Amino acid sequence: MPPSSADQPRPEATIRAPLGLVRLAGLLVGVGILWGGLQLDLIRDAEGFLTGAVALPIGLAAAVATLGLTARPGWLVAGRWAALALAGQGAMLTLVDAGNMVAYQHLRTWEELTDGVGALALLVLVGQAAALLTWGRGVWTRLARAAVRGWRGWRLAAVTGVFVLTSATLSRDLSDYAGELLLATLFQGLQLWSVAAAAAAVGTGVLAGVGGRAVRLLRGPDGEGNGRLPWVLAAWTVAVAAALSWFAYQRHPHVPDEVVYFLHARYFAAGLLELPLPPVMTAFDLDLMTVEATRWFSPVPPGWPAMLAVGVLLGAPWL
Question: Most CB atoms closer than 10 Å: which of 121, 282, 298, 308?
Answer without folding.
Answer: 121
